[in-house]
Amino acid sequence: MAALPARALQGNNAVPGTCVIGLQWGDEAKGKIVDILTPRNDFVVRYQGGANAGHTVKVGAEVYKLSLLPSGVLTPGVTSVIAGGVVINPAKAIEELDELASRGVQGLERNLKISDRAHVILPWHFAEDRALDGGVADGENIGTTQRGIGPCYRDKVGRSQAVRFGDMYRPKFRERIENICAAKNPVLAAISREKFEPLDPAAIYKQYQAFADRLAPHVCDTTEMLLTAAESGKRLLFEGAQGSLLDVDHGTYPYVTSSNSSGVGISNGSGVPAKYINKIIGVVKAYSTRVGGGPFPTELDNATGQYLRDRGNEYGTVTRRPRRCGWLDAVAVRYTARLGGVDAIAVMLLDVLSGLDEILICTAYELDGQRITHFPAHVDDQRKIKPVYESVAGWKEDLTACRSLTEFPDAALKYLDRVSELVGAPVELVSVGPGREQTILTGGLAT
Ligand code: IMP
To answer: Is residue 436 pLDDT above 60, yes or no?
Structure first.
């Protein structure tokens, strides 16, 4: 075996690796940032979640909506990776590949790699997602995206009924499908709230074998590939899906997704150790949104909430569900910025706030008569807390045509400064619209 390059044996920051993570409940417009940073990198890596994430990327007049493939696939010469921590619906991967190819995106066979360790979403996972999102035992519905994400992760951890991508190319694949169907059928019949058609192992095997054949050119050991890339000085960009407050361990559990969507998930999902990642960019919407159930301390169930929803087009990319909207919660974002070790923040959709007389920022909570400045761990407390707001002046000017911070009204600059101060990280990117050109880079990202 060849000796490891000396660089691999050095300490921290041996290689510039960057990660983009959402600091709220998802939908922070991370895809746009990843798309902008992609040309500066050799690899773009998705490492958790699945097709529950919705990424909208606008290139010129073209709008691309991706939910599974990394947005890096739109940039020629960059290798996009779906790493082992992702759960993959192969039909979705093929659908997105076909859509991109039909719109003239080239080189996909060479540029997209899928981990042989990634888990496969199978028909029973959709059935289980429908059957089991009837509510947390003593609470409301999680309101999942119904993409089979949670059930697939549950089987991954359970091990006995899981299928990884690599399994689809082994002689025992058919037998595995048959055995899992035999075990799942009676359980699904018992838990389904709708008429249940038993799983047909022969049909599922045939369908998934066709998927496996189609995706075979993309499948490889991405852990080995990424470690080799990191050790030889290639630049890696990690693309987090969902937001940190949906992290299965550190978010508003149990109203979360099933993976580590905060900064802690990068290494376990990709296999690349933290020492290769030297810049973490936390993405923050200028206000807050949430889709599905669960606590949302700064939610605005009023005309201001609707104002934000209308101006921000806050309807799910994947499910089209109206998103719940509210003021920026700086306590929650400071927590997730610390959790992720965030070096800089990107403030998105700032243009949406134009036209408001005053803007509120949550700077503390009241819990049982006490003022607290940390994000409580238990969902009961997260529901009970009352936001303590600070009011800052709004601005009337439209920001969508601004291309530099010097063009911003004073009130918008003051808002950015205050957010940065409260979150504890410098602002290095501000977005004032969906287009690539509506992005202002400052500080470290501008160089
Ligand atoms: P799941 O990930 O489909 O299991 O859904 C669990 C929770 O995470 C639900 O509240 C979803 O609405 C939320 N969720 C999952 N993916 C996203 C996303 O990409 N953006 C926003 N919310 C999401």
So the answer is: yes
**CA 50 – ligand 1 centroid, Å:** 10
d(CA 440, CA 447): 12
Q: Which atom of ligand 1 is nearest to 146's Cα?
A: 3
Q: What is the pLDDT of residue 2?
A: 57
Which pLDDT score is estimated for 72? 83
Q: Is 431 a pocket residue for ligand 1 (Cβ < 6 Å)?
A: no
Best mutation site among 144, 253, 317 for ligand 1, i.e. most ligand atoms within 8 A of its Cβ? Answer: 144
Please tell me the predicted confidence (pLDDT) of residue 13: 43
Query: What confidence score (pLDDT) does residue 326 get?
Result: 98
The answer for residues whose C-beta is within 8 angstroms of residue 361's C-beta and 6 or more apart is 327, 328, 330, 389, 390, 392, 418, 419, 422
Contact 149 CB / ligand 1 (< 6 Å): yes
Q: Assess whether the C-beta atom of 87 lies below 6 angstroms from ligand 1.
A: no
Question: With a 6 A CB cut-off, is 291 part of the ligand 1 pocket?
Answer: yes
Percent of the chain with pLDDT over 70: 96
Q: Could you tell me if the CB of 283 is within 6 A of ligand 1?
A: no
pLDDT band of residue 15 (cuts 50, 70, 90) is low
Distance 292 CA to ligand 1 centre (A): 7
pTM of the model: 0.94
**Confidence check: pLDDT of 263 > 60:** yes
Residues annotated as catalytic (active site), given as ranges:
27, 55
